[in-house]
């Protein structure tokens, strides 16, 4: 189980906290969308969860163990259990789909093996399997620089799955994609969530997508949790409060589902 206990984060140049005494417990099977205006603290929350950002106070607790008490080897194991997908995909453009996906294995291997790029037949067959799951078998040997945004995010998802994570974290993974492609990526994420028995926690700006796919919505505002509940409980009023939107016509996203 993953918990955030009383976590505060403040960046050196900031006068306010990026996260302010946050408490959250994530449960098996949760498919969570994190909403909030730009600067609300969504990315900081994700970075805390995978250990990239150390809280100024409070604890991230994984399976009962506070991350701050773990030594580097244990932290590496925790990071392996948390797959991550990104807005700008973080792929190596000149490498093929297959080669990019294989890098998902890096956390399990010695630096030397990673350096020489030698993979076992089992690792290669696992990579082929996740590539097939995200629907890219026909593109396996294509360089990712020649793929569309949606295809690149599928590569990102396959790479994360190859890590065999228990938690999948997403920092605005559809922010660079058109609405139709975003919907298909969320649909794939939901399918993988069930198939791989993941806890999924994704930052997203599109409230409609969150309401359609999430089992739980968390809304942040100025570094604090202002909503934590079921999608149907995220009302129009809560939308206005979250985004400081004063009227329906000013809303960037519709709430129809
Ligand atoms: N590395 C950093 N150094 C200084 N301040 C930072 C840093 N990263 C984030 N911040 C600040 O912390 C606050 C929260 O930022 P964060 O990126 O977590 O928000 P966000 O909700 O993810 O925003 P967006 O939707 O625009 O990505 C913002 O005020 C931001 O300017």
TrEMBL record:
Cellular-component GO terms for this entry: membrane
Domain ABC transporter: 2-247
Family annotation (SUPFAM superfamilies): P-loop containing nucleoside triphosphate hydrolases (SSF52540)
One GO MF term: ATP hydrolysis activity
InterPro entries documented for this protein: AAA+_ATPase, ABC_transporter-like_ATP-bd, ABC_transporter-like_CS, ABC_transpr_PhnC, MetN_ABC_transporter-like, P-loop_NTPase
PROSITE patterns registered for this protein in UniProt: ABC_TRANSPORTER_1 (PS00211), ABC_TRANSPORTER_2 (PS50893)
Keywords in alphabetical order: ATP-binding, Cell membrane, Membrane, Nucleotide-binding, Phosphonate transport, Translocase, Transport
One Pfam match: ABC_tran
Name assigned to this protein: Phosphonate transport system ATP-binding protein
Organism: Cytobacillus oceanisediminis
């Amino acid at each position: 189980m993953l918990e955030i206990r009383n976590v505060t984060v403040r960046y050196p140049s900031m006068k306010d906290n990026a996260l302010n005494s946050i408490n959250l417990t994530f449960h098996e099977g949760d498919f969570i969308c994190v909403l909030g205006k730009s600067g609300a603290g969504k990315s900081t929350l994700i970075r805390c969860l995978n250990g990239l950002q150390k809280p100024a106070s409070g604890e991230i607790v994984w399976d009962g163990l506070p991350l701050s008490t773990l030594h580097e080897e244990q932290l590496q194991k925790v990071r392996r259990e948390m797959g991550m997908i990104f807005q700008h995909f973080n792929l190596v453009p000149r490498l093929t789909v297959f080669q990019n996906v294989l890098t998902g294995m890096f956390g399990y291997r010695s630096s030397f093996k990673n350096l020489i790029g030698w993979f076992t037949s089992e690792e290669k067959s696992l990579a082929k399997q996740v590539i097939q799951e995200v629907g890219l078998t026909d593109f396996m040997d294509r360089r990712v620089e020649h793929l569309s945004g949606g295809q690149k995010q599928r590569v990102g998802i396959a790479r994360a799955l190859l890590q065999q994570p228990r938690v999948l974290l997403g920092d605005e993974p559809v922010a660079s994609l058109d609405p139709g492609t975003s919907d298909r990526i969320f649909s794939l994420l939901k399918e993988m969530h069930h198939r791989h028995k993941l806890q999924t926690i994704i930052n997203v700006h599109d409230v409609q997508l969150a309401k359609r796919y999430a089992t739980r919505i968390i809304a942040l505002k100025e570094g604090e949790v202002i909503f934590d509940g079921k999608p149907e409980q995220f009302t129009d009023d809560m939308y206005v409060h979250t985004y400081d939107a004063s009227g329906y016509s000013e809303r960037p996203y519709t709430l129809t589902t």
